[in-house]
Amino acid sequence: MWRYASSIGQLSLSGGSMDALADAVAKQASFWRFVGIMTAAIMGLYVVAIVIGVVVGIGAAVTR
Fold this sequence. Notes:
It contains two helices and no strands. It has helices at residues 2-14, 18-62. It starts with a helix and ends with a helix.
């Protein structure tokens, strides 16, 4: 987000040049791509944690 904010600052200083706008949009797209990848990774970790919890729970119930 800092890179995007810096690009927006450059856009306002350049008087609205299309190159500065394209750079700002590209940096914003990069940020949201990163957020999407991190969200998918964390959701995957949640699924693994739930599966491990179910297996441990079933294992504990069986050994009683």
